[in-house]
């Protein structure tokens, strides 16, 4: 199998971290987003939505979207379980994964896409008002997640999960988005530091 990815794409990084946590090795095919490789006809034949990552199995099956790819690898290698082990764990991981994706990763990404000069060719038109709105949403979410992390090591509870993978990618994406996490949000900073110390976070 092989994974079409980009080293600069946060969704592709989610899958790479997941693979590292699972200790699964796959072949990587780099898709240069800056050169618009993802918009070439050859790549559209792989994914008509022009996004990475895409996992191509040995039988030719193609799986796009980072969480779908991670679920495939969870089925392939159930341990360590990153989507929960019990019914309650699984639904809580699902809940927090969605929250982290929609309330952290998405607004942070929108700030980056609509402000960074390098994104001018990829996000056309860039909308400064949308970036400003997304910035406010991200800052509000920082406080909510800081409160949610009080007394728990990981966002979905006691176990590291896919929700934490998404959280690390989101928080690391604040740097290119030029967003600062307020210093008083100690739980959020602690969470980020703990996740950054994991072997899978090195990318």
Question: How would you describe what is shown here?
Answer:
This protein is an alpha+beta fold. The chain folds into two domains: 2-76, 3-Layer(aba) Sandwich (Glutaredoxin); 87-201, Glutathione S-transferase Yfyf (Class Pi), Chain A, domain 2, CATH 1.20.1050. The chain has eight helices and four strands, in the order E-H-E-H-E-E-H-H-H-H-H-H. The chain has a four-stranded mixed β-sheet, with helices on one face. The chain is globular and about 50 Å long.
Summary tags:
Glutathione S-transferase Yfyf (Class Pi), Chain A, domain 2, four-stranded mixed sheet, 203 residues, single chain, Glutaredoxin, alpha+beta, 4 strands
H and E order: EHEHEEHHHHHH
Q: Helicity level, as a percent range?
A: 40-55%
Structural classification: alpha+beta
- CATH topology tier name of the largest domain: Glutathione S-transferase Yfyf (Class Pi), Chain A, domain 2
Kindly report the spatial arrangement of strands forming the biggest sheet. 2-1-3-4
| Rg (C-alpha, Å) | 17 Å
Strand content: 5-15%
The helix count comes to: 8
Domain tally: 2
Oligomer: single chain
The CATH class of the largest domain is: Mainly Alpha
Span of the ends, CA to CA? 20 Å
Global morphology: globular
Uncertain runs with pLDDT below 50, 5 residues or more? none
Largest sheet: 4 strands, mixed
> What's the total number of strands?
4
CATH architecture of the largest domain: Up-down Bundle
Average pLDDT, rounded to a whole number, is 95
């Amino acid at each position: 199998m092989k994974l079409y990815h980009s080293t600069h794409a946060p969704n592709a990084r989610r899958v790479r971290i997941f693979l590292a946590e699972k200790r699964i090795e796959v072949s990587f095919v780099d898709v240069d987003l800056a050169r618009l490789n993802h918009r070439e006809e050859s790549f559209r034949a792989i994914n008509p939505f022009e996004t990475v990552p895409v996992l191509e199995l040995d039988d030719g099956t193609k799986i796009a979207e980072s969480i779908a790819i991670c679920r495939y690898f969870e089925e392939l290698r159930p341990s360590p379980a990153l989507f929960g082990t019990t019914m309650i764990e699984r639904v809580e991981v699902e809940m927090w994964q969605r929250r982290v994706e929609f309330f952290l990763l998405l607004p942070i990404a929108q700030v980056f896409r609509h402000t960074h000069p390098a994104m001018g060719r990829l996000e056309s038109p860039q909308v400064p008002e949308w970036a400003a709105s997304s910035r406010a949403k991200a800052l509000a979410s920082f406080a909510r997640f800081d409160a949610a992390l009080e007394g728990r090591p990981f966002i979905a509870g006691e176990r590291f999960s896919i929700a934490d993978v998404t959280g690390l990618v989101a928080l690391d994406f604040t740097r290119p988005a030029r967003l600062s996490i307020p210093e008083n949000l100690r739980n959020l900073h602690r969470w980020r530091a703990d996740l950054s110390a994991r072997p899978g976070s090195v990318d």
